[in-house]
């Protein structure tokens, strides 16, 4: 397993053959740092051996003013010894042997202080010295409470503006700044939170090394919370960020910072006078009886976002192909599988990134996608930006999106080691959080949830990119106690509860927030029972729950039990299991039918033979009772058979963990289904886009089928793109298409949406099954090399 270096503020230009020397180059926002007295950035070093001693990892840093195309030109390295325990920096320098075309370094820096393998390190080019005056004000800051403190003023302020002159990009003014806290002690300042209270409202805030929450208080208040690798560190914490403001703005001269830790949270009100303070105070009073932590219950910053002059979408300056090659090759189990499952996981996550709605992060890896749906929710004065577009269209259907999140979270819980081994865990966490952040926004009161954004009929009447809707404000669809929607509320509760388990170790505060929303949504779903298609006009044509809501109620309750270990939820499932229909043979596991998932979880959680028998009956029926193509694909129905086969494979993979006696049979079946979709079939047809020869090239997908562009403004897409005969201009890497007919025949035809559309729920079971098979292949290879049970063989 190779170490991986990630840095959101740099591009990796080259790495030497011995992997000891790496060159990092600037990104667009930091290309010119000539006006800065100090510039620093973070690196995340992952995949180091578990027993790594961080004191043995030292680095010398050289600064070049030209790009080094080949890092192997720097090979002679002066030996570095471990630092004494009382020393924080080394003056060891780097000896370079540069070719004539390579500029000599202009400065040589101190070596960085490194920490554990999962901890972020900081690369610097000078000793720490800054003449920047902290932004302070004469108005007193309200005293902090609990484990919170004010970082305003003093010799080491909590906010340091950097490039305050900033730049304008796609209609938004951006600048750079840093939040920082000194004197941290591991175990004493864990799970920190920065509260940034800006004197002028922002329209956005980006950080590569922290999770951003907001806006609150009309865009004045934003929170920075830890990533998995910097939640508990020693020494100093520095968080680089890019605040974003309306065009014509200047960087705020007043910014107040609070720092909380150990579970304490700051107030979401602004300390600045004006209209935002009045609004914040009013809504803060209702927050205690509404949804804790929801941006839409703490003075949403909608004024700037929803103003007539603000865009709903922003194109990148130019489109470009997606780079899908930056993944960790599966060299650690060669010969044990026909496919590189690391590649499959990597590309499946890229598909989800291509489906994102909202303001995309600065490290967006899909260069033909831009910000979109920025005004979602403005028709209701809510912020409903974010989330995922459902399929080849641009609608955000909450019901299948929630199922997608639950299934992905389940796969990450069961097969986390596969994500770790592939180097994709952080990307997967971001993928999941993109959905859960949206659900938190959409849950605007205990008994109120926005289940959909976009009119499906109007959307399907157009063939355009999400970014083409520059001035569109879409319709938002709400459920509440007067117009309830049990299926979507309970499924979202399941998604948030499952995701809380995923985030529990790395971001416990966020996990607590998700559980709070999950509880309220489940209570809403259970108390006000009504089929959601009766409350959301138009959804019945697309995602009506034909199966009813009893399965979602059990599904939500069992996930809440797994997340909280509270007996009340288990009692609910046990007491309603048979009367709600879970004891019957379920025909499928899908966005509409969750009974099989309930059976597997109950068998896993209780060890009761009753639930295990139900689970085994489902898997046996999938293997022998459902029709198959002549070459082995489990073929449920014509529309999207790959989706159902992938879901059967995922359930079988997890069931194999629960029932050791059936494990070999179940995982073999699951492997065969996944292999079929990857190309092991009589036609050699791959059903995952971007996986080489015989992969689909013409998926029914609006954004990827529309023409590329080299400058803005961009000509609006239309149905001529749908009728294009050639491949889609943009490769939708990792997407699973619908699949073949019962005879196994398949035609790569964009107009055939039954066989060629893609969807977020298609990939959910597929990706989770791939993770299970990847983990099993890895463990099989290790056991063969080092002896049986070299790794826990429970998969």
From TrEMBL:
Low complexity composition bias: residue spans: 84-139
Location of region: Disordered: 80-157
Claim: Hydrolase is one of the keywords in the record: yes
Record field: catalytic activity: Endohydrolysis of (1->4)-beta-D-glucosidic linkages in cellulose, lichenin and cereal beta-D-glucans
GO MF annotations in UniProt: cellulase activity
EC numbers for this chain: 3.2.1.4
Pfam hit, one: Glyco_hydro_9
Top EC category: hydrolase
Domain of life where this protein originates: Eukaryota
Any single GO BP term: cellulose catabolic process
InterPro entries: 6-hairpin_glycosidase_sf, 6hp_glycosidase-like_sf, Glyco_hydro_9, Glyco_hydro_9_Asp/Glu_AS
Annotated Glycoside hydrolase family domain residues: 341-769
Keywords annotated in UniProt: Carbohydrate metabolism, Cellulose degradation, Glycosidase, Hydrolase, Polysaccharide degradation
UniProt entry tagged with the keyword Hydrolase: yes
Record-stated family: Belongs to the glycosyl hydrolase 9 (cellulase E) family.
Protein name: Endoglucanase
PROSITE patterns (alphabetical): GH9_3 (PS00698)
């Amino acid at each position: 397993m190779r170490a991986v270096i990630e840095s959101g503020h740099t591009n990796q230009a080259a790495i030497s053959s011995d992997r000891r020397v790496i060159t990092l180059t600037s990104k667009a926002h930091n290309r010119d740092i000539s006006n800065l007295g100090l510039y620093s950035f973070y690196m995340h070093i992952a995949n180091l051996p578990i027993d790594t001693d961080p004191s043995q990892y030292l680095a010398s840093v050289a600064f070049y003013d030209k790009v080094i195309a080949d890092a192997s030109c720097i090979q002679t390295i002066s030996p570095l010894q471990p630092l004494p325990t009382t020393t924080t920096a080394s003056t060891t320098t780097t000896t370079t042997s540069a070719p004539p075309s390579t500029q000599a370094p202009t400065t040589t820096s101190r070596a960085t202080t490194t920490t554990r393998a999962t901890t972020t390190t900081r690369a610097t080019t000078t000793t720490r010295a800054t003449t920047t005056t902290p932004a302070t004000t004469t108005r007193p800051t309200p005293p902090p409470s609990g484990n919170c403190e004010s970082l305003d003023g003093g010799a080491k302020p909590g906010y340091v503006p950097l490039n305050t002159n900033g730049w304008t990009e796609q209609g938004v003014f951006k600048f750079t700044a840093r939040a920082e806290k000194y004197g941290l002690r591991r175990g004493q300042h864990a799970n920190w939170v920065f509260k940034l209270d800006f004197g002028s409202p922002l329209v956005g805030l980006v950080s590569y090394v922290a999770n951003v929450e907001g806006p609150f208080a009309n865009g004045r208040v934003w929170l920075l919370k830890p990533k998995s690798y910097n939640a508990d560190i020693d020494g100093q914490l520095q968080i680089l960020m890019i605040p974003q403001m309306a065009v014509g703005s200047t960087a705020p001269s007043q910014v107040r910072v609070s720092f909380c830790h150990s579970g304490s949270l700051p107030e979401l009100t602004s300390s600045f006078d004006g209209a935002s303070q009045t609004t914040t105070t009013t809504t803060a009073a209702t927050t205690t009886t509404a949804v804790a932590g929801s941006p839409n219950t703490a003075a949403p910053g909608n004024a700037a976002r929803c103003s007539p002059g603000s865009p709903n979408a922003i194109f990148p300056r130019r489109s470009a192909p997606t780079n899908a090659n930056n993944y960790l090759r599966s060299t650690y189990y060669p010969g044990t599988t026909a496919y590189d499952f690391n590649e499959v996981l990597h590309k499946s996550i890229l598909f989800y990134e291509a489906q994102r709605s909202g303001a995309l992060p600065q490290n967006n890896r899909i260069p033909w996608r831009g910000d979109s749906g920025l005004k979602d929710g403005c028709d209701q004065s809510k912020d409903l930006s974010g989330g995922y577009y459902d399929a080849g269209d641009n609608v955000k259907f909450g019901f299948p999106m929630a199922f997608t999140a639950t299934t992905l979270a389940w796969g990450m819980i069961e097969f986390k080691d596969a994500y770790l081994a592939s180097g994709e865990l952080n990307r997967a966490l971001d993928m999941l959080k993109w959905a859960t952040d949206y659900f938190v926004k959409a849950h605007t009161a205990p008994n109120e949830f926005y289940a959909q954004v976009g009119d499906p009929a109007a959307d399907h009447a157009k063939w355009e990119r999400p970014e083409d809707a520059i001035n569109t404000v879409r319709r938002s669809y709400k459920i509440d106690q007067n117009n309830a929607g049990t299926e979507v509320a309970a499924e979202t509760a399941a998604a948030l509860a499952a995701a809380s388990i995923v985030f529990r170790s790395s971001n416990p505060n966020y996990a607590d927030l998700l559980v709070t929303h999950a509880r309220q949504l489940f209570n809403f779903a259970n108390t006000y029972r009504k089929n959601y298609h009766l409350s959301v006009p138009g959804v019945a044509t697309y995602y009506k729950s034909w199966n009813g809501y009893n399965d979602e109620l059990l599904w939500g309750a069992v996930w809440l039990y797994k997340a909280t270990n509270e007996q009340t939820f288990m009692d609910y499932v046990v007491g309603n299991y048979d009367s709600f229909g879970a004891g019957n043979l379920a025909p499928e596991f899908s966005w509409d039918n969750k009974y099989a998932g309930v059976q597997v979880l109950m068998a896993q959680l209780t060890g009761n033979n009753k639930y295990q028998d139900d689970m085994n009956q489902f898997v046996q029926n999938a293997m022998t009772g459902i029709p198959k193509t002549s070459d082995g694909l489990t073929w449920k129905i014509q529309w999207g058979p790959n989706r159902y086969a992938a879901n059967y494979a995922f359930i079988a993979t997890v069931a194999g963990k629960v029932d050791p006696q059936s494990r070999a049979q179940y995982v073999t079946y699951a492997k065969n289904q996944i292999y079929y979709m990857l190309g092991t079939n009589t036609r050699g047809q791959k059903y995952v886009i971007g996986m080489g020869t015989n992969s689909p090239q013409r998926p029914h997908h609006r954004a990827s089928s529309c023409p590329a562009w080299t400058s803005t403004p961009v000509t609006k897409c239309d149905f001529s793109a749908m009728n294009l005969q050639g491949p889609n201009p943009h490769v939708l890497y990792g997407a699973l298409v619908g699949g073949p007919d019962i005879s196994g025949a398949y035609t790569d035809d964009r107009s055939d949406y039954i066989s060629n559309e893609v969807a977020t729920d298609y990939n959910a079971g597929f990706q989770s099954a791939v993770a299970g098979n990847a983990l099993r292949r890895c463990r099989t290879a290790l056991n063969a090399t080092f002896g049986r049970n070299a790794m826990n063989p429970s998969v």
